[in-house]
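wait is this the right file?? whatever heres the structure
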């Protein structure tokens, strides 16, 4: 009696297996005719038979279902379902025969490529639009859609953390600062550093790049002649760079306390990192702590003495602190590194002019003492002569700065260089209008 029952069960299982194979064939036929909706319907109708199916049949079922959902990239609304089905193929076959894994990986890569290409295109469009400030709102929208696309790729295939990193980066430019922070924090919490070894090879099916979790997995696929041209690439750690981006978002949100907290956290592993020192200086500046700002800038310039902008900023800070000679010294260091640095020349000229302020004040106190007044006026004109070459250099390298042109108009007038003054006035009026 038992034998009859066992044979009966085996017979039923056999019928179920044949039925499932028929459904898969019917779905594949429908897909060849691009009738993906019908293919999905047929396969869903056979889903109740999976409980008795062997792993090989399950893997085949989910592969065909995933490809039906993907529909050659024409149904973005079903991409998540496609990813889930295709990843089930990989899960089912991870410890056994990999009959359908390669095709599943190829389809996943097709899916990722479809979404990531669109996200990349939107990012490029955003970059082009950002060149014109008039396009600000449209630029932000392009970046936002791009970031969402990269995030979708990560959701489709959590193995591809690089796309989560892309989304975090682009969300910053979309001015979605909290989303940028959240995604960078998610990466850090996952232990993602961006460092490691990337294993990839080219599929013989469609010549697309396929990525692997290990060299062994890649080599096995090469031996089976499923892929060719294996590649091994080394990536450096990016943890500090990710934390710097978090700092930038906090600064944009004017959350100086959180920005400083993140900087100090990052400096524990990179105490002399130049970028972190500059960021820390900017935080102190935003907080109104000018002494700390100057201290951190000077610390940063010790790390990177060839940064002309840093020397310039130190000059600005010294000027604010009324250290005129120190400011001029820093501006000259910037010019030594960048000889055409118009702003530095302008600021040296302006710094020199401050020397005339006490002279003018004393002149006002000696309006009736003609001899003393003339003596002071001569000193004032000497200051103007000293400042003049720097303003002229600033104009030479940047001839549309109205402040520089006004300064030259005034100095030329004071030094009775009327032709030069008139020439500057014509330029000033043409730019102003």
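ok assuming it is, sequence goes like this
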């Amino acid at each position: 009696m038992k034998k009859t029952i066992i044979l009966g069960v085996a017979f039923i299982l056999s019928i179920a297996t044949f039925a499932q194979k028929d459904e898969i064939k019917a779905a594949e036929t429908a897909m060849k005719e691009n009738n993906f909706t019908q293919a999905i319907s047929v396969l869903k109708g056979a889903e109740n038979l999976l409980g008795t199916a062997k792993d090989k049949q399950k893997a085949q079922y989910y592969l065909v279902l995933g490809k039906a959902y993907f529909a050659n990239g024409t149904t973005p609304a079903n991409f998540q379902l496609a990813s889930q089905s295709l990843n089930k193929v990989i899960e089912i076959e991870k410890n056994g025969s990999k009959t359908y894994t390669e095709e599943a990986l190829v389809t996943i890569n097709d899916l990722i490529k479809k979404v990531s290409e669109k996200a990349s295109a939107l990012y490029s469009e955003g970059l082009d639009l950002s060149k014109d400030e008039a396009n600000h709102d449209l630029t932000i929208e392009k970046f936002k859609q791009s970031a969402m696309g990269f995030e979708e790729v990560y959701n489709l295939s959590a193995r591809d953390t690089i796309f989560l990193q892309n989304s975090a980066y682009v969300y910053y430019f979309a001015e979605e600062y909290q989303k940028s922070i959240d995604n960078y924090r998610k990466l850090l919490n996952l232990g993602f550093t961006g460092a490691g070894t990337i294993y990839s090879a080219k599929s013989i099916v469609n010549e697309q790049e396929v990525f692997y979790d290990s060299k062994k997995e890649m080599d096995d696929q090469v031996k089976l002649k499923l892929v060719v041209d294996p590649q091994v690439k080394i990536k450096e750690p990016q943890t500090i760079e990710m934390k710097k981006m978090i700092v930038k978002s906090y600064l944009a949100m004017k959350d100086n306390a959180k920005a400083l907290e993140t900087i100090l956290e990052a400096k524990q592993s990179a105490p002399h990192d130049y970028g972190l020192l500059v960021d820390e200086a900017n935080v102190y500046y935003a907080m109104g702590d000018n002494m700390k700002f100057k201290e951190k800038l000077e610390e940063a310039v010790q790390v990177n003495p060839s940064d002309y902008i840093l020397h310039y900023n130190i000059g600005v800070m010294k000027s604010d602190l009324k250290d005129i000679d120190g400011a001029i010294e820093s501006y000259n260091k910037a010019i030594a590194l960048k000889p055409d640095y118009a702003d530095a020349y302008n600021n040296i000229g302006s710094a020199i002019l401050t020397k005339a302020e006490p002279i003018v004040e004393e002149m006002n106190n000696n309006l009736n003492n003609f001899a003393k007044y003339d003596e002071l006026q001569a000193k004032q004109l000497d200051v103007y002569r000293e400042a003049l070459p720097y303003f002229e250099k600033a104009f030479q390298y940047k001839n549309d700065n109205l402040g520089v042109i006004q300064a030259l108009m005034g100095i030329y007038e004071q030094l009775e260089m009327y032709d030069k003054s008139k020439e500057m006035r014509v330029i000033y009026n043409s730019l102003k209008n």
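Strands lie at 196-203, 209-212, 227-235. so i think its the right one actually
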